[in-house]
Design a protein that fits this description.
Blueprint: H1 2-17, H2 22-26, H3 28-37, E1 50-54, H4 62-68, E2 73-78, H5 81-94, E3 99-103, H6 106-109, E4 119-125, H7 130-138, E5 141-151, H8 155-161, H9 163-169, E6 171-180, E7 186-194, H10 208-211
Parallel strand pairs: 1-2, 1-4, 2-3, 4-5
Antiparallel strand pairs: 5-7, 6-7
Helix pairs in contact: 1-5, 7-9
The structure holds S-adenosyl-L-homocysteine (SAH).
């Protein structure tokens, strides 16, 4: 029921913000929500866990997951003010008590004592290529915590390029979860575990992880 309501709200917000393309918004429930929910079957999250969704955009997967998992605490981070505003209004309309928002860059929040290594789990869909993504994510996750990255067929090449980043950041690939979408498209969720405390030099300054990936 709440997912239906989220779908309605997102469609209205999308008219203002272009969170998703017009083709994508038509498939909001059948494609995007299904894609986001795929993690629920496989992740190592437990009640009481704190979860951060990086580059959440219009709240994907963060809002979808927060609706399903009311006993977990979600922080939804994005650097675009209008998107965070929009999420705040949807959270209010949905009456969600387990969602906080963070407006700003991953590079900055990950170096702030309030959010550094404070999360049991991180998620990210369509934020950045893997070497960059791992650097943006590693600072938020507690040692031993997990990170879930949504990827398409290109994950194989991205993984090859990310070998150096995985070693430096202590982000170990545990498993590649493969699943089929209702329209038969194959999608992947890469599961990482953080194996050690992160060196304070990571993430590097704003923009550097994307411009000069590890
Ligand atoms: N996860 C959503 C949105 C993906 S678009 C989805 O699957 O639909 C990527 C989003 O990441 C954008 O909203 C952009 O504002 C945000 N973003 C990009 N780089 C960022 C950074 N370094 N820190 C925080 N947010 C970032």
């Amino acid at each position: 029921m709440t997912l239906k309501k989220l779908s309605k709200l997102l469609k209205t917000e999308n008219e203002k913000l272009n969170l998703l393309s017009s083709g994508d918004i038509e498939k909001l429930e059948s494609k995007h929500f299904v894609d986001c929910e795929a993690v629920l079957e496989l992740w190592k999250a437990e009640d009481g866990d704190s979860i951060i969704d990086l580059g959440t955009g219009g709240g994907l997967p963060g809002l979808v997951l927060a609706i399903s998992e009311k006993k977990m605490n979600f922080s939804l981070l994005d650097s675009t003010e209008k998107k965070i505003k929009s999420i705040k209004s949807m959270v209010k309309a949905l009456g969600l008590k387990n969602v906080k928002t963070l407006l700003g860059r991953c590079e900055v929040f990950a170096q702030s004592p309030k959010s550094r290594e404070k999360f049991d789990i991180g998620t990210a869909r369509a934020l950045a290529p893997l070497p960059t993504l791992l650097e943006l994510a590693a600072g938020f996750i507690k040692p031993e915590g997990y990170f879930y990255a949504w990827k398409g067929e290109n994950h194989k090449e991205e993984l090859e390029l990310a070998e150096n980043a995985m070693n430096h950041l202590g982000m170990k690939l545990l498993k590649i979860h493969k699943y089929k979408m209702p329209e038969k498209q194959t999608r992947y969720i890469l599961e990482f575990q953080k194996t050690k405390k992160l060196d304070m030099m990571y993430p590097r300054k704003d923009g550097v992880p994307l411009k000069s990936p590890l």
